[in-house]
Every structure is written in C-alpha cells, then in structure tokens.
Amino acid sequence: AYFNACTALVKLHKLEQALRYANKAHKLNPDYVEALYIRALIFMHLGLEEQAKADAEQAVKLKPRHALANNILGTINVELKNFVQALVNYEIAIAEKDDIECLLGKIAHLKMHLSDWRQHEEILNQLLALIDQDKAVCQPFDLHSLVDAPEYHKRSAEIFYELSYRKNEEVVAPHHEPNQRIHIAYFSSDIGSHPVGNLMAGVLEAHCKENFEVSIFSLDNHSGSVRDRIFRASERFVNAEFLNEDEIVALARSLRVDIAIDLNGYTGKNRTGIFQRRAAPIQINYIGYLGTMGSDCHDYIIGDQVMAPIEYEAHFTEKIIHLPCYQANDDKLEIPATTKSRADYDLPADAFVFCSFNANYKITPPIFAAWMQILHQVPGSVLWLHSKSETAINNLRSAAASLGISGDRLIFARTVPYLEHLARQRLADLFLDTTPYNAGATASNALYCGLPLVTLLGKSFCSRYGGSLLTALDMPELITHSIEEYVALCITIASDRIHHAKLKEKLANNLKTQPLFDTRTFTRNLEMAFRTIHTRHQQGLPPTHIGLAEMLAS
Questions:
Q1: How far apart are CA 62 and CA 395, in angstroms?
Q2: For the whole model, what pTM was predicted?
Q3: Domain count, the chain
Q4: Cα–Cα distance between 546 and 300 in angstroms, integer?
Q5: Cα(132)–Cα(156) distance, rounded to whole angstroms?
Q6: Residue 337 domain flag
Q7: Residues contacting residue 504 through CB under 8 Å, at least 6 positions apart
Q8: What is the pLDDT of residues 495-541, one digit of tens each?
Q9: Which of 85, 132, 158, 403 lies at 20 to 30 Å from 325 by C-alpha?
C-alpha cells in the first residue's frame, strides 16, 4: 500500500509526501527492491543524486537482473555522467524487459554520447519501426540527433505526450479580465549558466515593462551572474523547484498570466505537466527544445522562415510564429581578448584548424565520415573537438583511424571557464556544424567570436538551426544542401586563404549590421508577436500561423 501511494504521489510531483511513504515501505522491509528503486527515483527528482545512487545500487545488489532497478540506476548514472556504467545498466534492463518505456531510445542516445556506433543503423531502424507501430520507445529529444525526419520527430512527440501527460478529464484554459499590461511568464529549469539562460538574459532585460509584466518561474535551483541578471530583469521571480504542477498552475492563474512560455520542452528537468494543466490562456514552445511538442496544450511554437518554412507546417502540432530571426541573443556579452596562443591549447601553429564544439551525441557516423574526408583533402589540418569522456575520445580516434586519418589529428579541448572557451575559439579557422542536430548556442557563440561556420540544411527544425543563424547574418554562402556540397565547401575555404580571410571580414562586418545579435530589435519583434496572439485571443479567435505581416497589422 505504501508503495502504491508513493508511486501515485511521484506522478503528481508531490515528492516530499512520496518520500515519506517510500521511507515507510523501506522501514517495513529494507530488502524490498521496489521501495528502493522508487525512493531512488524520488531522490533523483529532488536533486539528491548520491542518495539516489545508493538506493538504486542496493536494489541492483539484491536483484542484479531486476529490470526497473537497473533502468533507474542507469538514469542516475547518466545524470552523474557515468555513461559507460549507465549503458551496462540499460542493456541489462532491456535484456530482462524489452518494453520499458523509452529505454531503447535512451540506449541509442547514450551510445551517441560515447561515440559507440556499433549497431547504430540496426538500432535506428528498430526505433523507427516501433514508432511506426505507435510504441513509446524514444523520448522525443533523443530522436533529434539520430534522424533528420520531421514526421518521426512529430509522431514520437505525440506518442510521448499521450503516454506521459494526457489526462482523461478535459482541462479548461483559464480566463480572466484583461490586465493593464500583457502578463508574460517564462518557465524554465535553466535559469542560470546554461545555453538557454545565456541566450535569454538580454531579452529579459530588454522587455518593455510599460507594456509587459514579466514573471520568471525558475524550476530548478541556480546561482551565479546569469541567474542574478535574470532575477533583476524580472518583476516577479518565483522559485518553483519544490512546487508541484498543481501549485505552480494555481499560482500562475492567480497572477493572471496571459502568455506562458515553455523554455524547456522535452529537455532536462522539464515540467510539461504545468502546460498540460494550462498555466495560461496562451502557451508557447520556445528555444529549449528544438521541435514540436506533439501536444494539445502548446498553442504556438516560435520559429522563422528558415527553421519552419510554410511547407513544413504539417510537422507541428503548434501554430508557428515566424519571427524575422529565431534565436534570442545577448549583445551585452563581452568576450575578452585572448592572450594565449595555439600552443597553449595543443594546436599546431600553422595548420588549418577545423573545430566543432558540439556535444558528442550530435556527432553521427555520416557527419564524422564527412569530416574525415575534409581532413584527407586538406593536408596537415586538424579537427578541434571537446569531450569529457575518455571512452568517446578513444572511439572517435579509432573511427578516424578506420577511415585513414591518424587519431592524432583530432585534438580534444580541455574544459575551461566559459569566457575563456569563447575567446579561444578565435584560434580556430572554421566551425563544422553537425547534422541532423545542428549547433545552437554553440554555433552563435562561434559566430559572435568571428569564427565562420559551415552548415548542412536539413528537413527538421533542429537540422535547420545553422541555416537560420547564417541567414540572419546574411551569409547564405555558408549554407549547404547535401553532404557532398558541405565537404566541398569546407575544402574550398581551407584551401584558399584569401577566400577564408574575406569570409572572416564579412562576418566581422555583419555582426554589427545584421539582426542576429541585435537584442533590442529581437525583443521588440517578440513583443509584437505577443501582442498579436494576445489580441487574437481577446477577440475569441483560435491560434493561427503568424508572420510579420500579421504582427504589423495588429
């Protein structure tokens, strides 16, 4: 009984109550595996990873092949970045119980983190076949780096939402009398030194407080200068980490929020249940998650004509707000001049340095093979990467050797403070984007530092991000449309120093004149979109696709 009550409370995110029941169940029987793994899950939700790990390890010690205990231990090890051990746990779990929700996708994603491409095509084909059967085999985020197929991204999101959040009872959207100012509320677990926090800080400061009331609901605990900036920029900062979804929604409704912006989507410590319960009459999906939510509670997704062109509208359950430029940026960011040389980062002084500082999970076998073709055609060049995993580093070097490239030509950057990392990118010559999951904040950071970037425009939201950034910088010549064109362009740039110098000069000029890093203009456009959709709602009109013409008309 305690276990059943505990499970129900976890689903409601009533974690303190759930923990009390889990403790009672454990006290009655310290060797009760189910109580141990459910308590481990609660500890994990509370951010107590070591306690979570201890309980999960004890459960696995009692029953080494217990599927659910290994599954939760694998998830805890992922949180702790113990990727090799996590993969062992997941593979035991799936061998014992092959229908655990989203486990196959977790394995595929984890193997990408490790650059372990054994059975890559086999697992991918299995995932797609099971999605075709409407099986919940993959969390939506995990699929984005595996396949450039927006129809599968949408279907996996719909399946996941249906499984995890859809309720039998109808949720009625809140209705309140008009506020004097439009009340917008941002919800995120990444209000701190995180790509989302870094990108949004300037926008939150630039909001026009005469016309907009701005609230922040922080869903996780952060400290540091970015969090402090966001705190000061908001009129109301709600520490909502330990509030459950019902409490957060009740508070948002009592504050008469007009527009709720979900900056998480299906990432990290998301709280999609807040939006399922309708925190506001209008709800928007933006920037944390690069794709459709597949839900009936996100009315809009913010995009632009590159990220989400008209012909791709069918791949979204949301209506699309087409801003002139998709990505928010902080033009107050000051990057120090680097006083270090290439030698300080183990880079050869005279070589052409390609780089890609994307996370390992974005590096697919096809794009890596393309990179090796480029290195083969540019003698003496090196590829500057970043990984904290020795296993991934060894796997990438082995993969390079198998393609005829010495592993020594892959140079792995050590972790340094954020501003130093930005500054050192000026020592590279060309950023190589990944596909099908493009660089986002990583790409705009590189561009902001004056580093040209070559991207491959795909079909899905996340595979068109690089193209969006380059379009907003008026540098379409760096957008390619096939792997062959991508390889050829990178070789051309690296082989022609004059061409390369002209690209860098154009980028330096466009950083000052084009809209990508104009925070104030971006914010005014965003506010124009908010006014447009708010006016439609006040008129009793349903959500619809919104473009610049509609915004200006409103």
A1: 33
A2: 0.94
A3: 4
A4: 9
A5: 9
A6: no
A7: 450, 452
A8: 999 999 999 999 999 999 999 999 999 999 999 999 999 999 999 99
A9: 158
